[in-house]
Write a structure and sequence with these properties.
Strand content: under 5%
Distance between the termini: 52 Å
Structural class: mainly alpha
Strand order of the largest sheet: 1-4
Order of helices and strands: HHHHHHEEEHHHHEH
Length: 281
């Protein structure tokens, strides 16, 4: 008993230990080189470094919102949702028509901000309804089919949404006015646009809220259990279909936020705007 209790723990073969050591040394070396490079640029041109870092933060927040949709669906359902980018594009088309064409708001004033808030809610509702319908009508029937079947179905849904966007918006890029204030805030010579400030104030609470939902709530625990093992989750009384629907709903919610802020950020509408999601993927 004593000999078995004090036996050394198996830590892998010699080749595995050597590979882990090489990976750790490589990761530490790359991190050290990156820190030196960042410090050198910060010392050489601190104002330019801060401006570029701020631009990277703005784009990173947008990509984080977009990537959440991919991560939720793939992590729980193990499906690469190719229609994600086209839903992103449809939301941008909807928001542009909602604010500029239907409500005719082109300036930053009280009515423009009210329309801005109404559009934010409406675009989330559109994304949620569309995504849940796609899950129920296209993906749910292929839940236990071979992996290639839902993958091809996702491509077909992507083509369908893309066709709707082309018919709605046209194939040529369009420029749209914005109701967001045009002013900039200067901090130590660094220019911070109002779009960036609004983006930070909205996106960071959204990311924290999703983290709370996934880690602290009952539905979040059900999502994590389903992602771990669907059959075991069913045996524990979890409604897997409901979890899948909730996942697509949350996915649509954050996708709506991302394409709304992306469109309001770059003020252009192109049917190929979905290609930007490659970076998030």
């Amino acid at each position: 008993m004593t000999a078995s209790a004090t036996a050394p723990k198996f830590r892998g073969t010699r080749g595995e230990r050597r590979r882990i050591l090489i990976e750790r040394i490589g990761a530490i070396s790359l991190t050290f080189i990156a820190i030196i490079w960042i410090a050198a640029n910060l010392i050489k041109a601190p104002q330019q470094f801060a401006q570029v870092a701020l631009f990277g933060l703005r784009n990173g927040l947008l990509y984080a919102l977009i990537a959440l949709g991919y991560t939720l669906v793939y992590g729980i359902i193990e499906l690469i949702n190719f229609a994600h980018g086209d839903l992103f594009m449809l939301g941008a088309v909807f928001s542009s028509f909602f604010i500029t064409v239907w409500f005719k708001q082109e300036e930053s004033n009280l009515s423009g901000w009210i329309t801005f808030g109404a559009c934010l809610i409406s675009v989330m509702a559109l994304g949620a309804i569309t995504n849940v319908l796609i899950e129920r009508l296209a993906y749910r029937r292929l839940r236990h089919a071979p992996k290639l079947a839902p993958l091809i179905t996702a491509v077909g849904v992507s083509f369908t949404l893309n066709f709707i966007g082309l018919k709605w918006n046209g194939s040529t890029p369009k420029q749209w006015p914005t109701v967001i204030p045009h002013g900039d805030v200067y901090l130590g010579g660094v220019r911070i646009s109002m779009v960036t400030i609004i983006l930070v104030l909205i996106v960071i609470p959204l990311l924290l809220a999703l983290n709370f939902v996934v880690t602290k709530t009952k539905q979040g625990k059900a999502m994590r259990a389903t992602a771990e093992d669907q059959d075991a989750a069913r045996l524990m009384g979890i409604d897997v279909n409901r979890v899948f629907s909730l996942t697509f709903y949350i996915n649509a919610f954050y996708t709506a936020q991302s394409f709304f802020h992306c469109f309001r950020n770059f003020l252009s509408q192109n049917p190929d705007i979905r290609i930007a999601l490659v970076f998030a993927f």
